[in-house]
């Protein structure tokens, strides 16, 4: 079994990360009734004996002593991290896994990337190495951050570069929360575009998330619960949206429900690597199958069902509905419509009580309504994990490499250009050491190139399909 | 490269109570090849070559007369295909005079792995250089057999593997390879190659079995040898994958009418031309069976003497509860269509350069792909022109 390390950077990254560890613990608690430290647990947690004071050596077999998250928490303010350390999850994190400062990055990518990067770089590398040493086969790093601010965006992408230099063999999955159009951070377009260049060049896979979409999904669920239309069949406290009954005792925070969705995305993404199933999908298979060109590694994700129905024996029609929903616009975690755009590849990660034949039937059913690029008409990758999420009988995570991400990028570019044309706020960035105007022009041209790559693929859509002529053999 | 399956296999065998694997004769790592042929072939292969070949050497030294190697692998993923091709090459280098037969599982048309056509093209082209013959099982065909002949409703990989194992057993269980022979064949691998692979350009072997049905049907069924042979022969010439839905319209071409220059165009549509065939009969009265219909020269390519192109192995012992059963191993155009389809799809993808960077990352370059494509187009052309 391989291991993964989570690096959570900035306020958003740490809040999402906090939800992730809470849900991961609950998920393993539900599966692992005997309290034995098993292979599945080892992928995200160490088992250590803390009684002797300090941190003892790792224990590989037997009972769970004390679980420690394979994580690195980075923030340039203390607020969120301190809150985590005072909260119920405090024992999961080791003080040696934290890097904090007091002054924040002032919503400035350059402060996070250049200033703090320079200042904390060595410290970060050292802690990363330490964390990696505890793994006998480290396969993947998960960075969780937001794009709009200063720390997550700037320092987060700095860490991404460090990872590539220090651990070139280890996969880098980045979960990036993109700002909404009416974001209150005025410099968020700058920060996002500067960060995008780093993601383009250094990430293996990026899972873009838009706050707006999370917000809509949360609203939709609340509406359905409150309207009573679904009656008692909706479990109000299903794991996806609610933290009630979890380790958290304080009143629910507005962002908690939204962060839970992202945390669930990560849980489902890694479920097949952690638990058994009839069709395993390892993490390294995701980028291999879904990334046909190095820069086109943005995967649009959707989670279904968003709430689960109470009955356990799910009739086939509802199961099929889960598959249909995964392709509909309002289940995507960004503002995008994969159905009316071009698929380069698609993965379906199914958990729970679903058979191979269900999977094949639904692919056949949905295929005619989707457009796949001409050279990848059969671009489906599937995984079946037998362990469902807590409280659900089954679930589906769909990952689409689809040109529907393009509008998000175009909008970002437009908002960037609006500021950049007037050179607004540029001086805040340019007075940071190592930050030059060329950083901005390079970042925007990197984004434009990316959009152009999607354009070129979109142009092949709907046209007559001509197969390239095969090699001829002289007889 | 992943420990889960190996440990499961070891314990399943041990649980049978009849046999088990040598506790030391296995090798696995923590991390798989991630569906990447290049990772299996260029990274895992060289890295673990010594350990793997030591294990092979130790096993080989236990044999008093080593006939050869039978390598079982798939070609869609990264480890079976990439490492499998690498190990086959190592076997060829270390045992230049031993026979190597690669048993290759052909992936479903769509499904588990998006880059399966690339992996398949790389696997087949490399095996074609180092292996003596490729015995192919197509997942789609076995799946159909499970559904239509074995009457299985929810087909699992276990069912598929069961059918494949049965088919392999029907070939490699002991038989008398010579007419009226008194000894079981001492070297089935070598005999198989000798009979079926007369030319290094033609190494793709397909397998057909008759009858195949659920075990509880057997008690109510009787079979006659002439009936079985007639069906098996039509399965051969019409390229039917199983005993259901055979096209009975397909007839062998009239030999006299063919002019050498338009040889291939003169053939009836869908007729499956053979290089060589081997029929294995198991069950009572097998000595009385007339196999003349398989010796018909019109079934075969013109450059081989029909007497040499057809052979039969027999044993009076019934196999796996079938009172009478026949298996056909055929070096023919059986695999032309699936091969053409895999190469075509991979070529489409290659023309847009999609996924190539995933392979160059591990040292497989565009030229390597081109070499592989060229090699397989050559194979396709050779089989088409039979």
UniProtKB/TrEMBL annotation, chain A:
Keyword GTP-binding applies: yes
Limits of the Tubulin/FtsZ 2-layer sandwich domain: 279-414
Sorted UniProt keywords: Cytoplasm, Cytoskeleton, GTP-binding, Microtubule, Nucleotide-binding
Compartment annotation: Cytoplasm, Cytoskeleton, Microtubule organizing center, Centrosome
Coiled-coil region list: none
Tagged with keyword Nucleotide-binding: yes
Cofactor dependence: Mg(2+)
Domain Tubulin/FtsZ GTPase per the UniProt entry, residue ranges: 61-277
SMART domains named in the record: Tubulin, Tubulin_C
Cellular compartments per GO CC: centrosome; microtubule
Major place of residence: cytoplasm
Entry superkingdom: Eukaryota
InterPro entries: Epsilon_tubulin, Tub_FtsZ_C, Tubulin, Tubulin/FtsZ_2-layer-sand-dom, Tubulin/FtsZ_GTPase_sf, Tubulin_C, Tubulin_CS, Tubulin_FtsZ_GTPase
GO molecular function annotations of the record: GTP binding
Family label: Belongs to the tubulin family.
Subunit and interaction comment: Dimer of alpha and beta chains. A typical microtubule is a hollow water-filled tube with an outer diameter of 25 nm and an inner diameter of 15 nM. Alpha-beta heterodimers associate head-to-tail to form protofilaments running lengthwise along the microtubule wall with the beta-tubulin subunit facing the microtubule plus end conferring a structural polarity. Microtubules usually have 13 protofilaments but different protofilament numbers can be found in some organisms and specialized cells. Found in a complex with TEDC1, TEDC2, TUBE1 and TUBD1.
Protein name: Tubulin epsilon chain
Organism: Grus japonensis
TrEMBL record, chain B:
Record-linked InterPro entries: Delta_tubulin, Tub_FtsZ_C, Tubulin, Tubulin/FtsZ_GTPase_sf, Tubulin_CS, Tubulin_FtsZ_GTPase
GO biological process: cell projection organization
Compartmental location: Cell projection, Cilium; Cytoplasm, Cytoskeleton, Microtubule organizing center, Centrosome, Centriole; Nucleus
Any single Gene Ontology cellular-component annotation: microtubule
CDD domains in the cross-refs: delta_zeta_tubulin-like
Main localization category: other
GO MF, one annotated term: GTP binding
Keyword annotations of the record: Cell projection, Cilium biogenesis/degradation, Cytoplasm, Cytoskeleton, GTP-binding, Microtubule, Nucleotide-binding, Nucleus
Superkingdom field: Eukaryota
PROSITE patterns referenced in this protein's UniProt entry, alphabetically: TUBULIN
Residue intervals of the Tubulin/FtsZ GTPase domain: 2-180
PANTHER family per UniProt: TUBULIN
Function as written in the Swiss-Prot or TrEMBL entry: Acts as a positive regulator of hedgehog signaling and regulates ciliary function.
Record-stated family: Belongs to the tubulin family.
Protein name: Tubulin delta chain
Species name: Grus japonensis (Japanese crane)
